[in-house]
């Protein structure tokens, strides 16, 4: 979210109107990415299709390109090779403000803002919907804890999230991502600080959503809510398989150890 807020104004050119985003199928077509011509490739020849409404996990070792791939899907980075398509149309031709209005994200380095819990969840919406704020907090599993704060949803938070645990901060950020009823939800290690019980509760809620979901995760519990698992290594897709096949592979690997 912080990356999106600080993006420069998009360039003019051909733009896709908002109604085109009814189909949220995501296609990565021969994607390559490097930060400069003289630097190593971060991603190479990545081709993936994520159907509208599908829940897909992206996993792999640290530094394999997962977060870079997510930023390409969000339009925060432009590919060095290939193209990203949303609903069959190139993302490069899109009005990114319209596109991002239908995308909810929680990135690893996202921050809260100085303001109330309600303001943080509604992202300082000039006409906040308190019922929607609380509904999203319930889905994110943080409503009861907010209600127990001295001022409830009017309680003030700092950018650092002082007074909140890492898990509470992540759940407030998740509620923020859900506030605009996104059609695409992108979570990059968004539940890494949650305890087992809260993670299970949040994962079940996300699994039940009828939106396109991309989950970057290491934890087996989190990956397990996806229907499909894409594994990256050294910037390349090394496997793309149904969750049952991925789980069997993990069990065999654990048994071998």
Quick structural overview:
The chain has 257 residues and is an alpha/beta fold. It contains ten helices and twelve strands.
What topology emerges from the helices and strands here?
Blueprint: H1 2-5, E1 26-33, E2 43-50, E3 55-59, H2 66-73, E4 81-86, E5 89-90, H3 96-100, E6 103-106, E7 115-116, H4 117-122, H5 130-139, H6 143-147, E8 156-157, H7 166-179, E9 184-188, H8 196-207, E10 212-216, H9 220-223, E11 228-233, E12 236-242, H10 243-256
Parallel strand pairs: 3-10, 3-11, 6-9, 9-10
Antiparallel strand pairs: 1-2, 1-4, 4-5, 7-8, 11-12
Helix pairs in contact: 5-7
InterPro entries: AAA+_ATPase, ABC_transporter-like_ATP-bd, ABC_transporter-like_CS, P-loop_NTPase, Type_1_exporter
Membrane topology: Multi-pass membrane protein
Keywords: ATP-binding, Cell membrane, Membrane, Nucleotide-binding, Transmembrane, Transmembrane helix, Transport
Give a verbal description of the structure.
- This protein is an alpha/beta fold and 257 residues long.
- The protein has a single domain, classed as Rossmann fold (3-Layer(aba) Sandwich).
- It has ten helices and twelve strands.
- It has helices spanning 2-5, 66-73, 96-100, 117-122, 130-139, 143-147, 166-179, 196-207, 220-223, 243-256; strands at 26-33, 43-50, 55-59, 81-86, 89-90, 103-106, 115-116, 156-157, 184-188, 212-216, 228-233, 236-242.
- The strands form three sheets. The chain has a six-stranded mixed β-sheet, with helices on both faces. A four-stranded antiparallel β-sheet has the order 2-1-4-5, with helices on one face.
- Helix 5 (130-139) crosses helix 7 (166-179).
- The mean pLDDT is 90.
- One of its GO terms (cellular component) is plasma membrane.
């Amino acid at each position: 979210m912080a990356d999106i807020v600080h993006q420069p104004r998009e360039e003019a050119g051909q733009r896709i109107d908002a109604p085109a985003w009814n189909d949220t199928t995501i296609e990565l077509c021969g994607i390559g990415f490097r930060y400069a011509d003289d630097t190593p490739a971060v991603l190479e020849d990545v081709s993936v299709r994520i159907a509208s409404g599908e829940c897909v996990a992206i996993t792999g070792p640290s530094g394999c390109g997962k977060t870079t791939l997510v930023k390409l899907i969000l339009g925060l980075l432009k590919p060095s090779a290939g193209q990203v398509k949303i609903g069959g149309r190139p993302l490069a031709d899109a009005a990114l403000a319209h596109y991002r209005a239908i995308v909810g994200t929680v990135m690893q380095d996202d921050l809260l803002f100085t303001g109330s819990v309600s303001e943080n969840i509604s992202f300082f919406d000039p006409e906040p919907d308190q019922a929607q704020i609380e509904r999203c907090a319930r889905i994110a599993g943080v409503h009861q804890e907010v209600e127990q704060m001295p001022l409830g949803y009017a309680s003030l938070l700092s950018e650092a999230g002082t007074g909140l645990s890492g898990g509470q901060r992540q759940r407030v950020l998740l509620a923020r991502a859900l506030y605009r009823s996104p059609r695409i939800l992108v979570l990059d290690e968004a539940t890494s600080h949650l305890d087992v019980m809260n993670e299970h509760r949040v994962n079940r809620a996300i699994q039940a959503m009828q939106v396109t979901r991309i989950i970057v995760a290491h934890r087996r519990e989190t990956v397990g809510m996806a229907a499909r698992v894409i594994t990256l290594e050294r910037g390349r897709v090394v496997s793309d398989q149904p969750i049952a096949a991925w789980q069997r592979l993990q069990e065999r690997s654990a048994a071998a150890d």
